[in-house]
Amino acid sequence: MKSKIPKVLHLLGGVPILSYPLSLAEKNHFQNIIVVIGHEAEQVEKALAGRLIQTVLQPQRLGTGDAVLRAEPLLKEFVGPVFILNGDTPLILPETLMALWETHLKEQATITFLTADILNPKGYGRVIRTQEGFVNGIVEEKDATDAQRHIHEINSGTYVVEASFLFDALKKISPENAQKEYYLTDIIKIACEKGERVVAFKATAEEVIGINSRADLAQAEKIIQRRVARYFMDCGVTLMDPDRIRIDATVTIGADTIVHPGVTLEGKTTVGERCILHACRIKDSQVSSDVQIKDHSVIESAIVESDVTIGPFAHIRPGTILRKGAKVGNFVEIKKSELGEHSKANHLTYLGDAFVGKRVNIGAGTITCNYDGKNKHKTVIEDDVFVGSDTQFIAPVTIGARSLIAAGSSITKDVEADSLAVSRGRQTTKAGWTKHKNTK
């Protein structure tokens, strides 16, 4: 990956790659979920915080067989099947894992493992079969003959293995191979030699993609996006052009919402029903129903109530709450502020650390001057206030209900309710001045 970030912590669909196999295990209520960690172990452990799992360290990267053997102390008393999943193979579907499990039970197998037929098998271990079609082993590519490299059935690295066989077999494998590693795949050969039942279950080629490069990550992202898009369309969401929309796997969207090209929905974002989203970016925000968000708007860690209109070119920053029916227009930036019900800030405005009540009109060019160079201060504008264009509120300041702030004012003191506030230099007009100047 050419990265300081461990491969399994790179983001796919907005979550770490490792989250996908872990979620498979959690959704299937597996007991004793164990993650074997090695490279950048501290980073991986930190990312796993809060999950009901155990971790075990593989100090040296001596191969997949050695990695699984590290889990033995945590499974000494365990009797039954052990599922083995790869941390960098995130695309296996829940129904495929369930089918693998059901096949294992039906066939009364000692080992059942997941395979796939792929056109370009380079880099994968090949499944070796007898003339009768029975599994006879797996050979890693570096150890394969030219003939074996032409086999298109590959090992995905996903297994179900009976615990009574697994750890005894792992202790019998050796690193006598091209990579000088302990291959987990060698347990297939050991099982076949002992006459144990070994079964291969085929998945689709798409599911078994392993991520080993940025190119693999991009390919997997396309697949995740396609799955996410299909899910939302099946739930009644209109995606005008799914190939030009990006939605994280952690997002929720209500029915009858229309999503136009250029939309990006990230993190823990929720979007309600009947919304219309044009080209915008929304991250970690709660958007209620019947909201319209116009082109080139950005919303981050904010709450947007129903019937709100935003944009175009609006920036809604963290800590902002837009109450029901509020309107935020073009080139408006709001940070850590509340805009009350049916209040409007339609043009070229900055509201920072402000509370704006109901039915307030914020004129074009209004600014809350919230920072004095050291501290942030709050502006409070109560209900039904009319703010004229090009007004500056020098915080901290409170504007009483139903007041009118004259255009061009710089407000430095509190304004009582039902007042008119004017704070600007007196206009001086010199008649004929330009005519006199031009004669010189």
Task: Looking at this protein, list some descriptive labels.
single chain; 440 residues; alpha/beta; Spore Coat Polysaccharide Biosynthesis Protein SpsA, Chain A; UDP N-Acetylglucosamine Acyltransferase, domain 1; 2 domains; eleven-stranded parallel beta sheet; nine-stranded parallel beta sheet; 9 helices; 40 strands; 28% strand; elongated
Task: Describe the structure in your own words.
The mean pLDDT is 96. The chain folds into 2 domains: 7-202, Spore Coat Polysaccharide Biosynthesis Protein SpsA, Chain A; 236-421, UDP N-Acetylglucosamine Acyltransferase, domain 1 (3 Solenoid). An 11-stranded parallel beta sheet has the order 11-14-17-20-23-26-29-32-35-38-40, covered by helices on one side. A 9-stranded parallel beta sheet has the order 13-16-19-22-25-28-31-34-37, with no helix packed on it. By secondary structure, the chain is an alpha/beta fold. The protein starts with 10 loop residues before the first strand and ends with a helix. The chain contains 9 helices and 40 strands. The longest helix has 21 residues, at 214-234. A hairpin with a 5-residue loop joins β7 (126-129) and β8. α6 crosses α7 (186-193).
**DSSP E strands, number:** 40
- Count of distinct structural domains: 2
- Strand percent estimate: 25-35%
Quaternary organization? single chain
**What is the annotated CATH architecture of the largest domain?**
Alpha-Beta Complex
- Major sheet attributes: 11 strands, parallel
- The residue ranges in which pLDDT falls below 50 over 5 or more consecutive positions are none
Distance between the termini: 73 Å
What average pLDDT do the residues reach? 96
